[in-house]
Structures are given as C-alpha cells and as structure tokens.
Amino acid sequence: MPEQKIRNPKMPSVKTVFGDPIHLLAFGFGSGLSRWAPGTTGSLGALVLYFAIMNFPEWAYLAITVVVVMAGFHICGESARKLGVHDHPGIVWDEWAGMLITLAFAPAGLMWVVVGFLLFRVFDILKPWPANYFDEKWHDGHGIMMDDVVAGLYAGFALVILGGLFQQLVVEA
Fold first, then answer.
1. Which intervals hold domain YutG/PgpA (predicted)?
2. Residues 158-165: contacts with CB within 8 Å, 24+ apart?
C-alpha cells in the first residue's frame, strides 16, 4: 500500500502497535498512542529513556543517541510504510531522538530538562528551516526523522545560550 499524506489518520489499535516490534518502537513503546498530542506525549515518554541514561559517561550517552537516530530512519520509515501513512502522528521515535539530542546540551538540573522539553516541542511544532524542508520534501524514514533531528539541534543550541545567560546572571548577582 503506498504511503499517503492524511491529515487525521486513524490511530492503529493497541494490539497492532504492541503486536509488531517495528510499531512498538515507532510508537515509543505506546507513548504515541495518545489521542491528544501524541508528539508531546511521545516526547514525555522519551524522558524515561533520558533519565535512565543521563548519568552515563558522555560518550555512552552520545553513542546511544546516535543509535536511536540511526535506527529511527528504518523504524519510522517501515512503520509508516506498514500503516500506509507518511509520518503518522503516533510515530514518535523521532521525538525520542530529538529529545535525546536536545538534552545532550542541557546543563545539569531538572529545570533544564523541563526547559529543554519545552524548547524541543516549540521547535518541533514550528519546524524552522531546514526542518520544514525535510518534513515536506522527504517522504520516508529520513524525512520523518530529520525534522526532529533539526528541532533537537535548535533546541539544544537554545539551551546552551540560555544556560550561558543564566550562569552569567547568577555570577553577576
């Protein structure tokens, strides 16, 4: 079945998602099944993985992030192909990758995780160039993933800037 661009595609059943390893991963272990803002709930679901690996050595955190991104090209593309819908809203593995990228730049502290989450959601929703290019022009797993990779990098860079400004304000106070 060819992939289609459908505005409000039908959410697959829990049985479909949990019965297929590709869908299970693509739907963020079920976090993308939310009927309300699956991208946001998927991003929240990604925090479980983040908190599990946040104290790993930097090289290990980055290696896991690279694996999540690289695997995502296949996972998201295959899930979309099986569903016949390009970038189904329930496919949130890309949000998981974007969140890990964003939080790789986060200063220590829960406040920065929250700020990173909010920044990632803003950049993922607004899709500033080149994220919008990937989202609109690439119709496979690469397009599904790359807009979130870009959103994650933008949010990460914003975290670095905000973290630096905050540190400067604290030092001056």
1. 25-162
2. 158/119, 158/123, 159/102, 159/105, 159/106, 159/107, 159/112, 159/115, 159/116, 159/119, 160/105, 162/115, 163/106, 163/107, 163/112
Polymer length in residues for the chain: 173
Please say if the pLDDT value at position 3 is more than 50: no
pTM: 0.88
At residue 7, the pLDDT reads 56
Name the residue with tokens 């790789």.
Answer: 104
Structure tokens at 148: 């979130």
Per-residue tokens: 98? 């974007």
> Which residue's entry shows tokens 């973290």?
163
Q: Write the CA distances from 64 to 38, 57, 165, integer angstroms.
A: 23, 11, 29
